[in-house]
Specification:
This protein is α/β, with parallel strands linked by helices and 252 residues long. The protein has two domains: 162 residues, P-loop containing nucleotide triphosphate hydrolases (Rossmann fold, 3-Layer(aba) Sandwich), CATH 3.40.50.300; 61 residues, no CATH class. The protein starts with 7 loop residues before the first strand and ends in an 8-residue tail after the last helix. Bound molecules: adenosine-5'-triphosphate (ATP). Adenosine-5'-triphosphate (ATP) binds next to β2 and α1. One of its GO terms (molecular function) is ATP hydrolysis activity.
């Protein structure tokens, strides 16, 4: 029988920041199927960004393996990079360039040919409603406009997996709707979404698979429906509190 390759397959992952045990990972295992809308949730400091950074090869794990579409992240960075898009929490764009110039730059960085860069830039400027400001410097933009440029850059090369670390933080309702609807549209065409956020009502609209993380451990992972049912909770926010408690995570 043919085995099904996962979009993300993490085996026995071990990681610790030197001098900081707060979110160390020990023998972590996680699988995300192709086509899933996967959400990773947990209190501040749980390790969500760290795990995203390990999955995308930005941070090297101490042990274990991470594979994207069956290709190990370690040692295959170039090949893997083209397979996934990353929309980081901190803007990953050139503020002094325009959205058009940013998209052209990152398109070239991904090795797209000139015709494809032109076509994708035009498409994404339209989808993100940035055509009118295509030639203005990004540093003049509102937070919501910068988020849309950040997202467009992350998907310029049509990746099959997109990592999104709080992609809507600080945006207005209009931008949130536009971003969520665009992500749902990409997913309906087969793109796997790996997403994290503290916006749990938005997450509930977006995600079908949920992993709850606390202090470096995945404390639950299943479909959203199964988790709500199993823990007898009404929504993702109630489930979050049920699984992670109400205590602040203020240890430094
Ligand atoms: N470069 C670093 N060096 C040492 N410790 C770090 C580093 N980056 C993060 N940490 C620590 O690792 C833990 C996990 O941080 P991380 O940013 O992954 O959590 P998070 O779940 O994404 O939190 P948030 O919801 O606040 O974004 C925290 O205790 C944080 O202080």
């Amino acid at each position: 029988m043919e085995s099904v390759v996962s979009a993300v397959h993490i085996s026995n992952l071990t990681f610790r920041y030197p001098g900081n045990d707060a979110a160390s990972f020990t023998d972590m295992n996680l699988q995300v199927n192709k086509g899933d809308r996967f959400g990773l949730f947990g209190p501040n400091g749980a390790g969500k960004t760290t795990l995203m950074n390990i999955m995308t090869g930005l941070i090297k794990a101490d042990g274990g393996t991470v594979a994207l579409n069956g290709v190990k992240v370690d040692g295959h960075k170039f090949r893997v990079n083209h397979m996934f898009g990353f929309v980081p929490q901190d803007f990953s764009l050139y503020q002094e360039l325009s959205p058009k110039e940013n998209l052209e730059f990152f398109g070239a960085w991904y090795g797209l040919d000139r015709q494809t860069i032109k076509q994708r830039t035009d498409e994404l400027l339209t989808v993100m409603d940035l055509q009118d400001v295509r030639n203005k410097q990004v540093q003049l933009f509102s937070g919501g406009m910068k988020r849309r440029v950040n997202l467009a850059i992350g998907v310029i090369h049509n990746p099959s997996i997109i990592f999104l670390d709080e992609p809507t933080v600080g945006v207005d309702v209009q931008t949130r709707h536009a971003i969520v609807n665009y992500l749902l549209e990409l997913n309906s065409k087969g793109t796997t979404l790996i997403y994290t956020s503290h916006q749990l009502s938005e997450a509930q609209d977006l995600c079908n698979q949920v992993a709850m993380m606390d202090q470096g451990k995945i404390v639950a992972h299943d479909s959203l429906d199964n988790l709500l049912h199993a823990h007898e909770q009404e929504d993702l926010e109630a489930l979050f509190l049920n699984l992670t408690g109400k205590k602040f995570r203020d240890d430094v």
